[in-house]
Structure formats: structure tokens, C-alpha cells
Amino acid sequence: MVRLVTGGTGFIGRHLDQDRLRGADIYHLAAVYDLEASDEANERANVGGTRNVVALAEQLGARLHHVSSIAVAGGKWKGKFTEDMFEAGQALDHPYYKTKYEAESLVRASGVPFRIYRPGLVIGSSETGAADRIDGPYYAFKLIQRLRSAIPPWVPLVGLEGGEINIVPVDFVARALAEIGSKPDLDGQTFHLTDPAARSLGEVTNEFCRAAHAPQFTLRLDSRAASMLPREMTGMLQHWHVAQTLKRRLLEGVRIPEPALQYVTNRAKFTCDNAQAALSSSGVECPPLHTYAWKIWDYWERHLDPEAPTERNLRAVLHDRVVVVTGASSGIGRATAQLVGRHGAKVVLVSRTKEKLDALKGEIEAGGGRAFVYPTDLSDLEQCDAMIKRVLADHGGVDILVNNAGRSIRRSIEASYDRFHDFQRTMQLNYFGAVKLMLAVLPGMRQRRRGHIINISSIGTQAYPPRFGAYVASKSALAALSRCIGPEVADDGVAITNIHSETVSTVAPGLLQFVMTGAYHVFPESAGKDGQKAQPAEEEISVEAAAMAYLMRGVHF
Predict the structure, then answer these.
(1) Nearest-angstrom CA–CA distance, 8 and 433
(2) Active site residues per annotation
(3) Do domains 4-304 and 376-506 have the same CATH topology?
């Protein structure tokens, strides 16, 4: 007996119990399931692949078990869609829907014995949460994660109720497929491998919000309420460039493909009478979502989150990217260069000391990375300009710029009355040098429609510690410039990020100023180069100063 499983190494195929496929000949699971795949990719895999499998089944005289999808109903069907329905005049306005329909049509028109299975939206295992692709409800996970980071879990949110979203765990689909496939006298039937107790989009979203410890959508509006808006208003929003741009930026920010928005307005209800009858007394049933939602969320956050700092994600983002790291000879810059080099980036090392850069280059290359040394005094704007022009000529562009080089001066305003050059020196390196590099790399980034500028700033731009006026002013200037130009370049695929080691954004400005005034009087002065007001080496800080330093860890004093 021939047992052939197409897509056997794929998401569902790997979960099949081969020993239970008695009487089965060909199980056809291979397909493209990506809503963002091209028309050609969908046609080639879903239609062309099925055509070849049907031909093989006809040649062998085999029974064909074809794994289709509830997508054959299209994205706009309203009401029940039964297992006996196929040609129902449904709208197939997406390549995935269209090609899954055409593939099932090929099987139905063939002369081979067949059984057709239409799974719902397949997610990870209900036992382990394991999955290897993002689809269906996973598209909402990044939004849930952002809400959890921004809003306390007890805050009620307003959202959409939506229609039924029929999700099923992959282990249930595999067991149901094997069970139905091994039973006799079921040829010519279609089976919906769906949840008979499907829940609304709002309920499903809240289930994953609970799993993520995120705020829930307590008040949920019917998505059909949008029909109450004047047609002129909805038409304007659909064609208004600003609205469409904001919509695109929002979707990109939470990594939701636009075709997935059809889930919000979906009104189809998929019955599964044939499947339930075939699975009766087998013990195979779809588990309730609340029993395994936490496993799905946990696995996604640990392994599938595209922004998680995993080895796979870092290499995918950094491989062959040109990354310029200033201040690379020590501290944050050195650690950053080592990390990105280890994950496949072409690291451009910039600082004043060539010997230290050469040593770092050797370490990166010993670990299999690639590094390039460009000794430069970034406070000298002519050197700065010459260096970045040479980098662009040598490497064809910069993908990521890390503005890390900086100079810090700790001196009170009283000790600075005759030291205007302190403010000039900090601005020269911390602000003007960084701006020089930004202006040089931004045109190429915008043209290629990708790029990232990362400014290593300071908590001082939020906490305003005394004695650091010159330093904080220069860092604040760069942070403010970045926040101003960020919206200008975001639509070109360029991101600008300011990184602060700590944050004190929850402290009210008035209270913060009060605390910092106290800190000014508690902590001692630093010695200048001329030795004025030097602190004796044997003197220890006061108990008050030690307590304040402990309570406000991360703030410069």
C-alpha cells in the first residue's frame, strides 16, 4: 500500500501519526498559507501543486485526501457555510482564497476517490504551544504586547466584537485528519475541521489578552456599526491620503498585513456536522481555547515574536547589513559591535584609538564576523565628514548607524562661569558630530526604504541631574532633533531611536526638580583639571548621598 504525504515536513504534516493512516494513499497538505504571498506563489503551489498531485493519484489509482481550507468561502460570506457547499457564488477577492478554491475544484473534477478536509485557522499545539508560522490570531499578538507595555492590565479598553473566528490547534487537526482518513465509506465527503463552539473575534482576542496579562476589551462594538456612518465620510477616509498613510503605518507598526483585516468583518459560520459524526466515539475533539491559550501566547513570545532578541531574529535582521558603531573601542560601543558582528553584520568600527579598534576587529573576525576599522576624532567635523564619505564609498551605504561616541562633563554652573569651552566641546562631539553622520546616511536609507539610526542617549535627558548641564544639553539636542525628524522619514522605512539606560517618566517635573535640587547639595563637586574644589581621596559620601543614590539607581549625580 502506498502512503504519500505532500507537505509532510510542513506545519500540519509533521504532526500526522503515520501509523494511523491505514487505507490512505495520498495526503495532500503542501500549500502556501501566507496572506502576503504573491499571486504567482499562490498559483504555483496551491493550484499547480494540486494539479500534479491529482495526476499522480490518477496514475496510481489512489485515494486522495486533499487538505483544503475554510478560505474557499472567501472573506465576505455571511451566514452558514456547510461542508456540502462549494460553488455558492462567494467572492474570492484574494489570491489565497481564489487558489484554494481552484485547487479544491481540481480534486472534485478528477476521477479519483477523494476526501476533502477544510481546517479552520490553524494555530500552535494545544499541548506545547509550538508553531512555526504566524497567521490568523497571531496577527493581533504584537498589538496585545504593545498594549500590555503601555497600559495597566486593569484598564478597560474599547474594541470590536467582530464575527466568529474559527481557530483550531494543529494537534487537533492532525488527529482528526488521521482518524477520518482511516475510516471506510467516507469517500466524496467534505469535512470541516473546525471548532463547533467557535467564538467571536472579541472573545478570542480577550482570551489571549488574559494569557498575556494585558488589558482587555471590556466594551466591544459590533463592526457593522460602521455602516451607520455617512457614505461620504467612509468614502473620504478610503481615499484620503493622510488616513491611508496613517493606517499603513499603524499596521506596519504592529505587523498586521492588510488582508488580515477581513477577519474583523467576517460573518461566516462554518458548520462541521460531517466531521463531528466521523469523529464521534473516537475521543478526538477540539479543546476549548481557554485551556491552552496561555501555551500559544508563551510559545509565540519566546520563539515567534519577530522583535524578540533571539539568535534567529538577530541574524535575520543583521546579516550582511552595514552597521556603523561610533565610540566602538570601549563600553557600550564595543559590546554593540561584538554583538552585531556575531550575528552577521558588516561592522564599521569608529573611534579615535586605532590600536583598540584593531584589537576589536581581530576579536570579531576570530568569531567568524566581519569588521572594518576607521579611526576618527568625531569632534573634528572635517575628519567626521571624510570618514563617513569613505564608509559610503567602501560599502555602498549604511543600514544602521549607532551614535554612541560621547563626552561627559560633570561640573556645576558656578564652576563653569569661565569655561564656555565645556559647552562647545560637548556639543561638538555629542551633537554636531552625530548630526554630521545622520545627514550623510539618511539620503541612502530613504532611497533604499530601510534604515535605522540609534542614538545612545542618557537618562539625564529625562532626569536633568545637577552638574551635568553641558552634557545633558548636548544629548537633549540630539534627542530632540531625532524626535522631530523621525516622523519625516518613517514613511520611507527609516526608524530613529533614542535609547536611555533608565527612565523616570512617571516622576512629575515639579517633584523631579525638587529632588534634584536636594541632590545638588548632597553630592560633592568633581575636581577640575586645575584641581579646584577637589574632593579628598579618603573622603566618603554622606549617608544621605548613599541613600539617594540607592533609591534613584541609574540617575547621574
Answers:
(1) 56
(2) 471
(3) yes
